[in-house]
Records
---
Amino acid sequence: MASLITCPHCGVRPKEEFSIRGDASLVRPAPTASDEAWHDYVYVRANPRGRTLEHWQHVAGCRRFLVVERDTFTHEVHSVTDGAVFARENGR
Amino acid sequence: MIRDYYNRHALDEKLRGAPRPAGVNHLAIGHRQAVAMVLAHAGEEDTVQQVLSSATEFTVRFSAPGEWLVVSESDTSEGLQRRIDAFCAGRAYVVDQSEARVLFRLSGPSTHRILAKGVGLDLHPAAFATGASANALCGHIAVNLARTGDDTFELIAPRSFAESLFDDLMAMGREYDLTAAFAG
Ligand SMILES: [Zn+2]
């Protein structure tokens, strides 16, 4: 488990200050998308070995949603981005 | 029996009895300060930060982007709210927190070692200088931590967590003979 996360607003913090809120790579389907697309979006998750994008909320700090890119195998944290900035940069 | 809960400090029960003399390491509980939360309107974050940090009538604590806690030792809660409103001129929401937060002031040569038992922040002056502030966990309680001097820190905690935080801090400070009392 990556134990130190560098929050863009608060600095280096222990993982206990955060709450992991799931896969950040998923894109919400259109409201009119098929039941299969919605089923995949809501329920189906990969369990990757390697780099993942996740939502981490800094609940005991700035309370912002962050997007953490980390490696589930080496525990290395590659980047931490504010959720709003991530959404803007990815055109969501 | 009519009891006026509003005028009862959250730590009255803990600090009841004859006041003990303050030791070298001392925990003072704020009694009469006004606290307000300020949330900048979208797009006005930088302006609000500038006006707040230029003020000398109160101190400003960073909580989150566009969000601060403002503390005043001299104003009433209504007075502080009016003062911030005048400063921000409609660029921010101001919410009075005076009765909802408890202020702990920890001072003495061992404060770093006491806080290190519960706070995951780097408290070295190079990383957390005088005037710095941040939201952080102290044990399991989310507080706003500020450094107000070389050996002085202030913690602002939700009122309902005050007794737990008080017990935690006293346990953390026991080996340094930490004393506690209401601020004078
Ligand atoms: Zn943060």
---
Amino acid sequence: MNNFSYTQAASTKEAATAAQGDKNAAFISGGTSLIDLMKSNIEQHSLLVDLNKLSLLGIENAATGLRIGALERMSDVGENPQVVQNYPVISQALLASASPQLRNMASMGGNLLQRTRCGYFRDTAFPCNKRVPGSGCPAQDGDNRTLAILGGSESCIATHASDLCVALVALDTKLTIENAKGQSRSVLLSDFYKLPGKTPHLENQLQPGDIITAINVPAAAHARKSHYLKVRDRASYAYALVSAAVGLDVQGGTIRSARVALGGVGTVPWRVPAVEKALVGKAPTEENFRAAAALAVRDAAPKEHNKFKVELAQRTIVRALLEVMA
Amino acid sequence: MEPQFSDQPGGFVGKPLVRVEGREKVTGKAKYSAEFALPGLTYGVIATSPIAKGKIQSIDTTAAARELGVIAVLTHQNLPKLAKTPNDAAGKKDTGAPMGFLPLTGDEIFYAAQPVALVVADTLEHATHAATLVKVNYAPQKPIADFHDPKAELFDPEKVQDGKQKGHTKRGEPQAAFASSAIQLTATYTHPVYNHNPMEPGSTTAHWEAPDRLTVYESTQGVTRTQSSLAAMTGMPREQIRVITKYLGGGFGCKGAMWPHTILTVQAAKAVGRPVKLMLTRPQMFTSMGHREDQSQVMKLGASADGKITSLIHTKQSTTSPWDNYAEPNSKIVDLLYASPSFESSYELARANVMTSTFMRAPGEAPGSFAIECSMDDLAARLGVDPIEIRLRNYADHDYGTGQQWSSKSLKQCYARGAELFGWSKRNPKAGATRDGRYLVGMGMASASYPVHNSQGTARARLYADGHAVVQAGATDLGTGTYTVMTQVAADSLGLPIEKVRFELGDTQLPTAPNSGGSVAAGTVSSSVYLACQDVWQKLIKAAVIDKKSPLYRAKPEDVAVEKGRLFLKKDPKKGEPFGELMKRGEITDIEGMAQGKYGSGYEDAAAAKNADATEKDQAGHHSMHSFGAHFCEVRVDMDLGTIRVSKWVSVIGAGRILNAQTARSQIIGGAIFGIGSALMEETIRDPHYSRYTNADLAGYHVPVNADIPNMTVEFVEEHDPYINAMGVKGIGEIAMVGVAAAVANAVFHATGKRLRDLPLTPDKVMMAGLPS
Ligand SMILES: Cc1cc2nc3c(=O)[nH]c(=O)nc-3n(C[C@H](O)[C@H](O)[C@H](O)COP(=O)(O)OP(=O)(O)OC[C@H]3O[C@@H](n4cnc5c(N)ncnc54)[C@H](O)[C@@H]3O)c2cc1C
Ligand code: SF4
């Protein structure tokens, strides 16, 4: 870890301004991701701007949708009765993440910006294009069991590690982002993340000084009937090998709308519109689920050790859909 | 033979006493090795090599040395020289080092994360930061990652485990017997690198109290062994070196010998003239204190049409370091478990750019039992015979490997009781046929065994006239209950209440005890404690018979007995007195007893064990001495997703006298969980091109969490074994994990009908095996 200075901001504008003035600045919320990265010298920041005094709070459930302040803790959101009832997929994704201690500390905003668990990224002794642009990607023919089969490039196949994002991206979530000028903008989460392409170190659309202030999830029938399924190497406290966030609106035995997204397989939280489209208008049967799920991995480009994800992703979707219907 | 402990009416031995040091631990008062705040203490942090093979061309320490608080930056260029290093064969032997190479003795890099510099600073933070500023220029070369590497060359080591075990063994005509067997099973079993990952990482605090006096607070399973290594390396007499380990946060073998960071800290403390504390980081724990080597075993089992084993042939290939021929001796348990008329084993090693592997809980027995116990399950399935029945058909009524009789063996009782507790009779004989919704349910079992290794140790007991006692042995409590069980043994032996006995351990100034490893500690230390207490009584009896005022005056010492602290005439028990009265009258404030307890063959036949070759010591007695047990496992396998959950567990163990029902149960469930981890999730992954681990932390290396483990049932079969030691204790630290991976894999086979032999059984492997749907 390098030496750094620390400041606590009293307003969003003050925080944004402080961060904008230093190109190596970082915001700190729960610090559960950031401090790890700094301790391992994966990130070096000269200034930490603490957001915890800001009033980016609130879990507001309205008829139009759910608004969650970026500083709300994962545990508070995951256990919120409104979220449990109206957005089960969000609650389940949160409660399947990390450990209770971490969830008590970790913020919703920070969760969206956590970085990949690719082992090469996490150890500065290795080359890694995401960490040191142009240094190479040893994961391509190395330990890639947990890495992405979708959205990768020759430069990087790192998986996006968040569970929450899989649920959010399935539900057409928008982020509210504010900058130093006091301007606020709204960005669809599915547009927020960048595919690695040739620049895997550029992960999202945030500009220096941009702060995520809120997460907005539109209300929908498929949000109420939703489910998160996470497949992992142990029963708890592990990242997903594959996960699926699904939501269905079924009326009179026919699927009116469907939402399906995958975790653990994509370089970004991976929504699969083709699967959703294939489900709409069909009966919610296992057979139809299976046929639709096959479309999720049409473009899969697995590597030596993650071939299993092509099959597992489909099965996870099918199982999640069966469970949401159960 | 020595006297034997017998149960005291109302005694403490065997009772589920809670840990005597429990309160100290949970209130933070217990001082672990890194918690001694010495005046002028400084902090050491190791900088490591990113590459696995190459040469250091230059080191620039200026930036690091300039940092705030930095006291010294030590490299191979300026570290104080040692009297001896393990870098040559003689040095390795003399220093007792587990690895034939000490980092910071030259410019060559042999393995990834090899130490290249040690920074000493006034705070941990300063040292940590400065360590990242040491600039090293390397000339990298292409490393060899493991025995699979196309460039790796397999060779026959002749001896494995550092020369302590024969590589080749042969009994009968196994090849011919196999070739003519009605049933021939050949299977390959593999597992990756495992790391011990004790909760407490390795740590050393080195304090030169004078130029010729060194005290080291060390996280070790054996203070004496560390002292020996330090004496050899520093060239100082052993008595000028004191090693202290009051509490240990687990070891599992990785703290069994002295690894490089310890001597480097000692050298650093010498260099800076202040005490230095060094604690390995969690990632460094994967490359500093050994590991269980990645390996592949081929198990050939020949049997007659009615399932009687005719031949067992075991070969193992594994990765070792550039210097040492280390391989766990897997074949021993293969040879031992069943009545096979013929047996053969051999080992092949390949050198790679890795550090030397080392003993890890049940070294050899754990992976070896995976091979033989899965093969037995295959044999049962092939014949359509119950897995317990196939084991009974091949039950070894004596040790076929050595020809000796067992000192005691309760394996049949373990099978029977385990089956009963588990509900084995409900098992559908057909594999892949039990379902619960989308789960395939399977039941599996496996046998377990672990040797009673030859070992010895000394203890001292000091009884005070006021009725309290201090009992000491330089043993280690790995966190498993040594403090507690020794207090129980001493209390019963001295007839005192628990609160009146203090047991002290973990210091080279105390009488020498063996390393806590190989499951020897409980048996050896408890025996020496018991005998030291007997020595106290013998001395007091002698004092009584010459004391005119004693009712025992002029009695023959051999006619006097002691019970609950009262000395009395055996023939006329009314004649006697409590020890306190005798001592007070004679103005004896305290009296000290001392004794050596022997464990294993040395107890049964001390002379034979003394003269035996190192590799044959365990067999030097007249009996073959082992604990035995059986594990039963139920799994639920998700037929779509391939995830496995253990849903029921039963272990029944026969291991001689059980000193404390509660700590013993904890040992068994701890070991079983260790084994479940190895079966289902643990794996250190080495990149094939860089020969460097890609998951060296506890986020990447999965050990079981609570949610992975069901309620576990543990029982012990009562055993009285008079041949093994004065307490009749066999030890349970390692048998707890032997056979566990096989029990899990056998349950998975029963659930799915698929035999998986490549550990760990992660969901990808299970799913890709093609489960029934
Ligand atoms: C051992 C472990 C296991 C984990 N397991 C899981 C898991 O299974 N599933 C899962 O989804 N996650 C998991 N996580 C990740 C965890 O959820 C994240 O660390 C956490 O959500 C980050 O939140 P934080 O508030 O602590 O972020 P911080 O560490 O404070 O910040 C993370 C990043 O976000 C930036 N940031 C924070 N808030 C804002 C904001 N409002 N606007 C702009 N930028 C901001 C920071 O500058 C930093 O770059 C795990 C983490 C650990 C350490
Ligand atoms: S996959 Fe991405 S993060 Fe991993 S090594 Fe390659 S570039 Fe780095």
---
Amino acid sequence: MAVGIDLGKPTSQHLLEVRDLTTRFYTEDGVVHAVNGISYTLDEGETLGVVGESGCGKSVHALSMMRLIPIPPGKIEKGEVIFKGRDLLKLSEEEMRHIRGAEIAMIFQDPMTSLNPVLTIGFQITESLQLHQGMDKAQSRERALELLDMVGIPEAALRLDDYPHQFSGGMRQRAMIAMGLSCNPSILIADEPTTALDVTIQAQIVDLVKRLQDKLGMTVIWITHDLGVVAGMADRVNVMYAGSIIETGPVKYIYGDPHHPYTLGLLGSLPNPEGSMGVRLYSIPGEPPDLVGMPKGCPFAPRCTFKVERCLHEMPMLEEIEPGHLAACWEKDRVRRV
Amino acid sequence: MVNYIIRRLLMVPLLLFGVTVLIFLMLQVLSPVERSALYVRDIPRNERVLEGIIKRYGLDQPVHIQYWKWLMGTIDPQTGDRQGGILRGEFGYSRTASQPVAEMLARRFPASLELALLAVIPVIAGGILLGVVGAVNHNKPLDQFVRIFGIVGWSFPDFVFGLLLLMLFYANLGWFPPGRISDWANQIVQSPEFHNYTQLITIDSLLNLRFDIFWDALRHLIMPVITLAYLWWALTLRVTRSSMLETLRQDYITTARAKGLSERTVIRRHALPNGLMPVITLGGNTVVGLLSGVVIVETVYNYPGIGSAAADAAVNLDVITVLAFVLLNGFILVMANLIVDILYAYIDPRVRLD
Ligand SMILES: Nc1ncnc2c1ncn2[C@@H]1O[C@H](COP(=O)(O)OP(=O)(O)OP(=O)(O)O)[C@@H](O)[C@H]1O
Ligand SMILES: [Mg+2]
């Protein structure tokens, strides 16, 4: 899977290549193993879904790439994040600032809290434009207007000087998207952008991003705990559990032929599309593990219905099932979709 | 914003009405004899004269009429002059200061104002600045230093702190003199060549280019200022630090960083306006605290401001003078609240636009 064979040298044919990214938090309760050596690649124009239950390290993985985790208590222990041939983890803070917002933009889960309540929407958008594109006030306002228009905010000209509290939740997320897209980034990381919204609004936002992606040709990393959302938009999916990628592959394999019991569980908790009565097949019993002091063996073992003796002692590595489709499970050949 | 300020200003007379009614009701606890001191220079010894005064000034009339007269004063039936009336600035005669309360206030208020203004400097510089610095450098050595500083400051009762300073610098070292100004300097300040632009000696002495007097005034002020400021300084430090820490954890700060803004801009533009909101509220409380603080501090350091006069009046049961202070305090509180509210609205659109 790793294409850059010349180890350690930050070259990659991909737009983004993450290698062995490991992030921990040194808290008073112990060391939180939030991200445990994840690797993947992303090509231009692709959409990657990152899926997993709450607390499995999805956000920390994204924030680590942007170098936005709080240090201390956080620490990026090792790994490389090679973007356009440069290892982001080795850049100076100054160089990194030219990447953030300009090359890689990020939007967040809760549009209610991720906009600054004391600054106008217009200001928060023009700020990026003035910073990265060297626009003056008038130019950036003009562009902000276009952007708000593009993300479907009615009467954008009148809303530019509104404050976040004067926007509805859906509108705020649209404004966040406008903000994220303002400098034409190569990659947009959307960290659960629809979780905090009503179902109908969720669909609108998903639609909006899909439309914009077709129009602008961006690469998207879509983080969610909802496999249903990802099914309709992603090319590939990383399934994360306890800070590791436990299954990855093209979206059709992940849905059609999953080989990790956890993926199966996530799919099982989806409403069955055939049985229009909305029957849930089954949901995963138990809780995700505490990431402090990780146990030996497979982290999913305690909740796994397929587990064997070996799972308790040895951590399985990602292994190929078919080209581009990998799963980390000792019993992966037994795991089949029912 | 303008609308908001106007609405808020309209509240001021209402609040002041409340304050005066409250004080007037307190006044009713006094006997007419004591209340007569509002109008005459001393409590008369002769009972017949006294009755005359009570009659003349209507001190036996219904409460609402008396309230009106207390506010506006009364016409002396013999001379036709209007006398008394707190709205006319006539607060009566101060027994303890041996002069009309208004005169006493005019003379002593600048001294207290100077003290309070100087005390605000360490509160802002030491409190807000150090608090922000601590929060921004969270868990780094600088923050630990700030935190210890704050805890030590906060855990000392202020009178203990004042007494310690007094023992060390006055009794043992004799570095700082009590009072407001030395005699030699006072003679110059009172002389016609010295221009009293503001009545604040530190500022006036600089404007008169008398640096020796400036230094003398400062030497007198340093101990009272430190004693007065230190509790509020420590409190402001704590509130600023924890509020900024909380703000820096907010999602919109991550958003701002994710835009590629420099940390400086993130803090100045995105964190400070939000993080300082609780500090503004505390600022209102600080004004209240400084008001009661001057009473103790001025007494301890024998500083001739309104605080020591109030203490003097209270000890000698000079009710008329004390009430004038209550009124003055009420006025300052209402104004402080007004300023806090306006600042809040200025920073927070959610307040301003509701
Ligand atoms: N600042 C921090 N200090 C300590 N631990 C942290 C910090 N941030 C995250 N963690 C821990 O890292 C782990 C991964 O968190 P992360 O936010 O990445 O989860 P997530 O997959 O994004 O979950 P969600 O779906 O709830 O957003 C969690 O156990 C969390 O408690
Ligand atoms: Mg998250």
---
Amino acid sequence: MSKIIDRRILIAEDDLTSRLILSQTLSKANFQIVVANDGDEAWHIIKQADSPRLAILDWMMPGFTGLEIIKKLQYLDSNKHVYTILLTSKTERQDLIRGLKAGADDYLVKPYDADELLARIEVGRRIIQLEEDQVSFQNELKKYATDMEELATDRAKQLVHADRMATLGLLSAGMAHEINNPLTFISGNRQVLSDCWPTIKNSLEQDLKMAPANSAQIGFCLEEIPKIINGVGTGVSRVKKIVDGLKSFARQNETIRKPSSIHDCINQALILCKNRLKYNVEVITDIPEDMPDINVDKQQIEQVLVNLLYNAADAIEEQQKQGSIEISTRLKSGKIEIIVEDNGGGLPEKILAGLFNPFFTTKAMDKGTGLGLSICQGIIEEHDGTIRAENRSSGGARFIVELPLFTTTEGATK
Amino acid sequence: MSVHILIVDDENEICEMLSRHFRFLGYEVDQAESAEQALEIMSEKRMEVVISDIMMPGMLGTDLVSAIRTEYPMTHVIMITGYVTLENALTCMRRGADTCVFKPLEDLTELDEAVERALDDLRRWKDKFLELQGMKGGKK
Ligand SMILES: Nc1ncnc2c1ncn2[C@@H]1O[C@H](COP(=O)(O)OP(=O)(O)OP(=O)(O)O)[C@@H](O)[C@H]1O
Ligand SMILES: [Mg+2]
């Protein structure tokens, strides 16, 4: 919408009588008058951001003359155009042409007729309105263009993201599978070796008694081999954790949705996390009884909640304190919001951007693989929802999951 | 009685590893790199237990279970798989495998226990047969 121009008019006239007559005429016609007693004052007013859009300038006055002001206006660094009517007692044709050439929009020769003045002012106002319309039309166009552009970029980003995720999904499934076989025989062989160890140890101990000359080496073996066996075991567990992560990352696209109660999802997730939460974490839930169903793959939503709860528990543990996790749900314009918040260390500004990226982690090697949140995001987006993270003002992190409600029309088409 | 176990996996290192493990526990172990090879070996040698992978080039482990069930009903089959899906597990169960153990077999005891259970079952039947033979003998 273009804005309606106001009725303010600037009058720059040094002669008191002329000024009064002019003011009266305009006031009667319902204009608001802004008065300047000389050219300098007029220029000062015009320069201001919110000056009147229409100015009646006397040609001859102290300070800048009307003509000078009009010339200066051309160079004013503003895209706002001030419509100027030059007042003059000069009647020479030459003078009038000079005024118009300098940039005046119109002129009046004193003494002038009041009706003519008002008519010319109306012309000016029409032109200003036209200009105004055009500017706002251009602005609208510009805004529309940027909106479209933003939309296109967003969509492109989404597509790239979806594509990357799909590729990553396939890749991880393949990788998980490839790693699993060698992992199986590494792990198995370690266990066989470990089973054989007591026998080896026995004979080594015998040897030690029989041939003390080799005692250093035999002692070394007795000391180190059990550690080697253990080390391989630790490695195997760690790789297995990564493989499991990759597998569930790959699996997140196969959803089976049913109308489910969020209540059940949360309770199930809490049961799954019971062991992790029992020592230093108090869980507070605030879930209204009569929440409507959501159309989800229950196991996947449980997995999201489990991941969030584990992260919260980790964050609390890192602070080495007793902590609490709050889980709440609420309805919000056709959506359900599930909020998981903790009073751990919170999310430092610099990690916020990469939080949901696969393999992003701040945890030690054997604690986090950095897949948790990217899995959550994958699942929630697959459910046409969103997940976001923020810091609580009281300290700690807050994760907000938004999911569409299950609507009966959707159910009927099923 | 000496117990024969057949390990079937297209990944040779896994065959070797499991073979080593069960030999250490005192079993007689054979290895096959495919389901086809497994059936070949079984036609010449009685097996108490077969431990087989599912995903293999050529005949699948799940088809091997079916074949063993019809040809060697007394042989127990334990499946191992890295390709953990509900469908795989259901197929194993329907076709009569004892159980399905998931790779990477981080702990071999699950497999050991499965073998133990299979052997218990076989022993119970054997006792029954002996008992029957004894009864026949008594009537003579
Ligand atoms: N509740 C939280 N409070 C503070 N930091 C968090 C919280 N949740 C996640 N983070 C940060 O986000 C990172 C990524 O989390 P994500 O769950 O993706 O991976 P992870 O927990 O490190 O590993 P994984 O979940 O794969 O075991 C974490 O390493 C941690 O720095
Ligand atoms: Mg995590």
